[in-house]
Design a protein that fits this description.
The longest helix is centred in the N-terminal third of the chain and has 12 residues. A hairpin with a 2-residue loop joins β3 and β4. The chain is 5% helix and 28% strand. The strands form five sheets. It has a six-stranded mixed beta barrel with strand order 9-13-10-12-11-14. It has a five-stranded antiparallel beta sheet with strand order 4-3-6-7-8, with no helix packed on it. The chain has a four-stranded mixed beta sheet with strand order 15-20-18-17, with no helix packed on it. The protein is built from two helices and 20 strands.
């Protein structure tokens, strides 16, 4: 089915009052000097994968409708001295807010009635990055506690954040390797895994994007996975249907948000085409990936208002702790099943990895925590 391309004026991405010419140039130079956005779980290389036989799913995924949830808050931000300070505009009845950059947890803000600006600071911004925000309406951190996920707010060349379509407009088609998973529970964004919620590399297809996949239906990007890198998508299917999908090559099409007010305005669209993925690494060859995308969010646990993402707290050792496995080493490539210790905790490798720190927010699917240990 052909999709008509929608031309999106990039000039509409730039918000805020005009700056002086000198200040504008200085900020643009700073933005252009930022590093390329890395993959959220660095050091992990998916194994070679090839296209497999395909059994069509028993149902077609409809566009998941989140329009009944409270509207997303808006944000603003500015790049200054190599950091992006993000201000969240509060919404009624929300008790907290979470902000991501390219699917990576940037910060958590607890709202307790303070009158000052609600801000978080991204200390590691990158070129072409985008930011999402969600409001939370109780402290459970459950799917039911979340409002709508915001559209992406892109870091423009002028060093300011603004919503928009990024580099690729609605109607853009991208050749992708499509794998499948059947995990249940919350995805990385906090939304529950379900038919029509898919995992993407957020640098290529940002969270909050609707897109169609031939043979599957409509996807909403709201999850990620360690093997879902570059031009790869992981679709959710129940039970054996996930195995029957296998690994397929498909051309996906970015579409407008079908539930946007006024009959559908352009949805946030992909930030890079298949030939120009934000990652510097090569697109992996196709193969079956295990179900990794729908596990708990890789972001750190909720904490009071902070300007940076919280860091994991090492598990304390106890008098009855197990003996520590060999200490984890950043330069070693660990195979599946490898046992290491880090900060007083034993871990077992669930995937091949290098330089994925055990217990770190971005290593949630790489290492399984076993027991506290002592040497």
């Amino acid at each position: 089915m052909a999709a008509a391309a929608v031309v999106v004026a990039l000039s509409s991405l730039l918000l805020g009052p005009p700056a002086s010419a000198d200040a504008s140039v200085a900020r643009a130079d700073a933005a252009s000097s930022l590093p390329a956005c890395p993959f959220w779980a660095s050091g992990i290389t998916p194994p070679p994968r090839t296209v497999t036989p395909w059994v069509p799913p028993l149902q077609t995924a409809s566009a998941v409708d989140f329009s009944s949830r409270p509207a997303a808050p808006t944000i603003s931000g500015t790049l200054t001295n190599g950091q992006v300070t993000i201000t969240v505009n509060p919404v009624p009845n929300a008790v907290a807010y979470k902000v991501w950059r390219d699917g990576v947890d940037v910060g958590y803000i607890s709202y307790w009635g303070q009158t000052g600006p609600l801000t978080v600071t991204d200390t590691s911004p990158c070129q072409g990055a985008y930011y999402d925000v969600v409001a939370m309406y109780d402290t459970s951190n459950s799917d039911a506690s979340l409002g709508q996920l915001s559209v992406p707010y892109w870091l423009g060349a002028d060093g300011t954040l603004a919503p928009g379509a990024g580099d690729v407009a609605v109607g853009t088609q991208i050749s992708m390797m499509v794998t499948s998973y059947d995990n249940t529970g919350q995805t990385a964004s906090g939304l529950n895994a379900q038919l029509g919620v898919c995992a993407t590399d957020p640098r290529v297809i940002p969270w909050g994007t609707y897109f169609t996949i031939p043979g599957y239906g409509t996807c909403y990007a709201a999850d990620l996975g360690t093997w879902i890198q570059n031009d790869t998508v992981d679709v959710w299917l129940p039970g054996d249907q996930a195995n029957n999908w296998g690994v397929q090559d498909r051309t996906v099409t970015v579409i407008a948000d079908p539930y946007a007010s006024g009959g559908g305005s352009p949805s946030p669209s992909a930030s890079a085409s298949a030939s120009a993925s934000a990652s510097a690494s090569a697109t992996p060859s196709p193969s079956v990936s295990p179900s990794v995308s729908a596990s708990a969010s890789p972001s750190a646990s909720a904490s009071p208002s902070a300007s940076t993402s919280p860091t994991p707290t090492p598990s304390p050792t106890s008098s009855g702790a197990a003996t520590c496995s060999p200490a984890w080493d950043a330069s070693t490539t660990y195979q599946t099943g490898a046992a290491v210790s880090y900060n007083g905790e034993n871990y077992t490798a669930t995937y091949l990895s290098t330089d994925a720190v055990p217990g770190a927010p971005t290593s949630w699917a790489v290492w399984k925590a076993d027991t506290p240990c002592s040497s």
